[in-house]
Design a protein that fits this description.
The chain has 300 residues and is α/β, with parallel strands linked by helices. The chain contains 12 helices and 7 strands. Helix 8 (202-215) links the parallel strand 6 (187-193) and strand 7. The structure holds adenosine-5'-diphosphate and magnesium ion (MG).
Length: 300
Amino acid sequence: MTRSGVSRSGESVAELPGLEAPVLGPTGRPFTEFAEPAPLKGVGPARIISLCNQKGGVGKTTTTINLGAALAKYGRRVLAVDFDPQGALSAGLGVQTHDAVTIYDLLLGVVKDPHEAIIKTEVENLDIIPANIDLSAAEVHLVNEVAREQILASVLRKVSGEYDVILVDCQPSLGLLTVNALTASHGVIIPLECEFFALRGVALLVETIDKVRDRLNPALELDAILATMFDSRTLHSREVLQRVVEAFGDRVLETVIGRTVKFPDASVAGKPIIEFAPEHPASKAYRTVARELISRGAVA
Ligand SMILES: Nc1ncnc2c1ncn2[C@@H]1O[C@H](COP(=O)(O)OP(=O)(O)O)[C@@H](O)[C@H]1O
Ligand SMILES: [Mg+2]
């Protein structure tokens, strides 16, 4: 190719609307424009997806909030389930939890009807089942229950017809709660921070997913790996991403999420970044993730 050809293609990439240069082609695949999703005719049954990684701080909660909000904006009915006693998802969506009926009450059967726990967020089409620190006692309480791994599945079954997608924001562990999330799910998305040691622990996570598929939930699929906190300016970020692509191939989403301080700002505001700063590159990136997942069939 001629020099001008190279530069022309470089420019066309940089000028594509809605995408900053850093989100383009970092996985080494040709850039695809994911179509604006068509509206759905009816609602449900929901595809249930767990956001899972036993490492903390990789973007599980941020992805649940912003992917949830992006899908809601595309007219999908979304239920986000806070499945971490830290309650960051609830806080990030502006929900007070100290008096709330939470996922803990549903797991223990203190409250039988999930509708009593569901709260509408400020984002139309996006609801949440909150959590608070009570949830940290759940594993101890559930350990002697019959079919203890299937309790979340039975809770979500009751509302699955009312949503197109249910996103479960897991806690950073591979304990009984996470096994419950995987058992309830059709798919898993693993957010990976583009940092040293990103892949450390992922083998164990994949092993856990495989075990749950073998023993409890034969239909469970690894839907996607989402690279987060990507910094295209550093060789390091690019190398980590390359390593991730070598390990997981096409399961790595083409869309990656850049590192930006807007996320902590949005958390403080108790809103998705998509609401807080809709034109920010990170908002565009999460909308692209939503379209990519829809185009892959991971979401209706
Ligand atoms: N792409 C990003 N760039 C910069 N900071 C981010 C990004 N994604 C998340 N964060 C911040 O990193 C911290 C951890 O993210 P979070 O989504 O809570 O991770 P997890 O749920 O996996 O523990 C939060 O303070 C969040 O605001
Ligand atoms: Mg979290």
